[in-house]
Every structure is written in structure tokens, then in C-alpha cells.
Amino acid sequence: MKRRPNPAEQEHDAITGLATAMLGLRSVEQLCAFLDDLCTPAELEAMTDRWRVVPLVAAGVPYREIHERTQVSVTTIGRVARTLDRGAGGYDAALQRDTSPPSRHR
Prior knowledge:
Layout: H1 7-23, H2 28-38, H3 41-58, H4 63-70, H5 74-86, H6 90-97
């Protein structure tokens, strides 16, 4: 009997392939170039907005104050908070490794 691909397995394999490609890059500049090629400006803005609020949410800064500091929507801040609380642990892992490299052009 022919085995049909499981959509969940295919998605996992695709995400793993993307993560592997990202880990293979050797510098912040290479990763920035990869993200510029991979994502639309709106996607990059959404991801950077989320990442900008992660340390503030993790530090317990109130949502309204985070919004005032970053202009990121309270809805997005709430989503980040839920993910920090119930997500896969990626934000926490990245926070532990964050060395806050200098900002890049955009």
C-alpha cells in the first residue's frame, strides 16, 4: 500500500528545512539578507514588532506602557504574552541567547 504524506509531517519537515537554512548562515548580515529575500516588508515588520516587545513582556512591563514605547498594538502584545506563557519555548530560548546586535538598515 502506498503511503500518503502526512500534511503535519510535511509542514514539520518544511519548518525544519527553513530552520536548518537559517542556522547555516554565518553572520547577522547573512541572516538579514536571507530574511529580506524570504519575507515581504510587512512580514518583517510583524516579526520585528513581536520581537521588540518580547523582552518587555518578559520583564512584566504593562501592555499600555509597551504600546506607548513601541507603538506595537496591544493585540500583538497580548499575542506575544500568550506565546511566552503557552508557546513552544522559542522566545525564552532566544531571550537567553540575545546579545542585542546593533540595528541594521531598513
